[in-house]
Amino acid sequence: MVVDLSELTTHLDTFLRVREIGDSPNALNGLQVANGGSVTRIAAAVDVCQATIERSAAAGADFLLVHHGLFWGGLEPLTGRHGRRVRAIVGHGIALYSAHLPLDVHPEIGNNAVLARALGVTDWEWFGEYHGQPIGIVGTLTASRSDVVRRLTDQLGIPPRVIATGPESVARVGVVTGGGGGLIAQAVDAGVDTFVSGEGSHHTFFDAEESGINVIYAGHYATETVGVKALAEHLYQHFGLPWDFIDHPTGL
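RE: above sequence
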């Protein structure tokens, strides 16, 4: 199967609404590096880094789909680490496509939607705001706190860090993957008793304790593996392009 790069990226731009979703300017959502113009195999990874580039090439991929792209540091000369990454991508003939908030907030294959479904959250709605964009999911889940922890462990493969300062019987859960700890106050305003995210700052322990909610941190990296996998599978179903997940966990 060979797919034209422009056809693939046009589909992604439309499906993810990359021109409509607000985000940090340095996210630079969409196609970040072009290749010769065709795609035969996709690699999906959370981050673009030297390791994921080289492993994508080893897997035979000519399209690398990531959540965190090349330009988080803003304007950088093509020297040192940044230059090595760019030279490797170009040298291997890999096209690079990045989707940050457009992937987080997609209602079908987005990080938050996929993880919320895996937990069993129903009747969900959006809450919270980041760069002017509603980003989190809040909904109903009748379970014990320990059940939520077990489901997260089963889904992500690592035990989460639990701030057990809310009820053991869970009823209303909020989900913001990645570095969502700063949205605890907005989660409280949305009426959650349990907030699931990737990571948060030290002081968020007291935010949780004094608000009387559970906060479960399941890892920034781990909680953002689900979206790129779901998006790669969507592309397989739509275009027939095979894909590999390039797992390069940070432990954070």
